[in-house]
User: Which sequence fits this backbone?
């Protein structure tokens, strides 16, 4: 039988961790006392996991490596999450550090449909990092947002996304916004010969998101944004697999289950389920992610993994144009830098600031 | 304009917390630097929040009370979550302690469709706590699960639910399981005159869940189980509002974002979105929830709240029959005790153990 390899970090003294880790193994497999599981031949042979290693990390912390049976996890995406971090997520002392899927499960997932290469082909940009900015603040009218979108496209931003607070509000209706912003990028492209992608935010229940996606795709947008932890991972997966025809940029809102390591949730699970590009909080910005954490997210998004395409890393969150050279050097070319408020909060005009950002990235082209 | 009242616990020294909390307010409202927001009249007047209090709790911790504008949150359930704990969930130093909705938002949500009273009416039991157990371990055949279901119904369990690892596996197909387990409870009811509810687990993507729900409801089941943090809160909400015709029991799998206090996530949000009964880890069992945390979850599930029906608290997780008197005394009558593995892991037979459990609860009837 095929197994998942799962690594948990556990707050427990190495001397006394074994019993607890054994109970974690039972929790994540049969969820009964061991002797109940042993009574049934099929359960005994197919459903039990195994603790394969217990590594002391400090006086109060161990790394536990577990083999968990693939049969439960293989049936649907919710069961995969159940086995990876379902009930044990309720233990404050446990963090999901890493997982590896057997090929029998991995091959069920297509991962990103476009990925880095597909996004580059849409933009016809191959020699440099990509740029991204956000239409905000929420509360602007559709006309104001479309005008900002036009300015950013003129200034040379590659992907212009909605803020994640833009939904279908009466003061900025979704369909009208999509129409006008898409028109703005189309007009700039017609006159400049340079394409920018407008990327609307899809919010609400799965049916809301599906209806919005349908409208956006019929309007010709080049990408869409979804926050999968808000919507629900299985709900996102269903839409990614069935309805998406353009690249999807994933937003990390509500993803603060810090006890799944960021590189595993944002880097690995988001990619597995189909994220073409993934936003994460950059180091040195508004959020507390370290440089190392950002490097780890990036690594998981781009590393070879079965037949899955690499996803485009999108560092964001309080970034500034001035940091462009540093960030391109750190993240490399296959990256999209997202500067939002930093383009708006400036003495010079938004257009000049946007141009500076686009030029700073172009200057690092290889 | 209507506001949400939101309370965050923040790891920061009281002396220096003010700036950070101000940035949290901006993050959860306009998500731009303040002066960008101030430029636009509509944004300035409608979109900005306010820090209303900063209470020192210790040398390294403060309670921050914020007023956040209701306009963004009012449009859909994903935006409500965005405003409550979207981007700030990415700060490891912040915990969502409490929220209050303005009536303009609260009245959009129907909450539980059955709640405690509706479940009691289905069972025609009004004078005692309710009992619940689980069909497991996964890996049993449909015939074995149905036989266990029959035994538990004969022993007098009120609600017999699937384990959350039961999905639509080849070794235990969903529809066949629902058919046989529902038949088992119907037969026992016909001969004993005492009704037990069989409650199948609905797993997968939203469409999988909807198909399974439809089959289960057509088969006459008395309740269903869903794990909303796995499925996604907006996805659960859509199904609860549109498709559910029977009470829904909510499972806490994947709900370990401990930085939303358990009583707020499991007690308040799960109820708001329509949970009729909510499972949570009981104190003194396999999980680390304290007695106080369990009391707080229960309080939130049952407290008066606008026009919302109370939800039925379902403490679970490594409970034993022996603890019945203590637990009924602690949780009170409007509770359903869930003993799973504790009915299986026993020298006496499952039927005897089940009877003991049912009798122990009946003995505390009022």
Assistant:
């Amino acid at each position: 039988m095929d197994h998942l390899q799962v690594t948990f970090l556990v707050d427990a003294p190495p001397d006394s961790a074994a019993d607890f880790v054994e109970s974690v193994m039972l929790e994540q497999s049969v969820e009964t006392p061991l002797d109940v599981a042993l009574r049934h031949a099929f359960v005994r042979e197919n459903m039990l996991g195994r603790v394969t290693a217990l590594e002391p990390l400090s006086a109060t912390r161990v790394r536990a490596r577990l083999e968990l049976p693939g049969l439960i996890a293989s049936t649907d995406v919710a069961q995969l999450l159940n086995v990876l971090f379902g009930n044990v997520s309720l233990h404050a002392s446990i963090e999901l550090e890493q997982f590896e899927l057997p090929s029998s499960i991995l091959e069920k997932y297509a991962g990103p449909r476009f990925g880095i290469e597909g996004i580059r082909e849409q933009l016809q940009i191959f020699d440099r990092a990509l740029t991204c900015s956000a239409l905000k603040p929420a509360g602007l009218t559709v006309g104001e947002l479309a005008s900002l979108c036009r300015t950013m496209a003129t200034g040379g931003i590659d992907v212009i996304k909605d803020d994640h607070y833009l939904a279908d509000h009466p003061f900025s209706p979704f369909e009208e916004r999509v129409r006008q912003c898409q028109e703005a990028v189309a007009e700039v492209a017609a006159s400049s010969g340079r394409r920018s992608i407008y990327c609307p935010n899809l919010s609400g229940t799965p049916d809301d998101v599906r209806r919005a996606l349908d409208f956006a795709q019929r309007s010709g947008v080049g990408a869409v944004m979804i926050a999968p932890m808000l919507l629900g991972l299985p709900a996102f997966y269903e839409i990614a697999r069935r309805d998406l025809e353009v690249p999807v940029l994933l937003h990390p809102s509500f993803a603060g289950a810090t006890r799944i390591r960021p590189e595993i949730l944002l880097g690995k699970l988001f990619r597995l389920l189909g994220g073409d590009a993934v936003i994460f909080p950059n180091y040195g910005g508004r959020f507390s992610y370290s440089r190392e954490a950002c490097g780890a997210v990036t690594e998981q998004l781009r590393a070879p993994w079965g037949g899955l395409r690499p996803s485009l890393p999108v560092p964001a969150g309080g970034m500034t144009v001035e940091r462009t050279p540093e960030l391109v050097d750190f993240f490399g070319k296959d990256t999209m830098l997202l500067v939002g408020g930093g383009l708006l909060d400036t003495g010079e005009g938004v257009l000049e600031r946007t141009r500076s950002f686009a030029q700073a990235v172009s200057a690092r082209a290889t």
The CA atoms of residues 111 and 273 of chain A lie 5 Å apart. The longest strand of chain A covers residues 3-11.
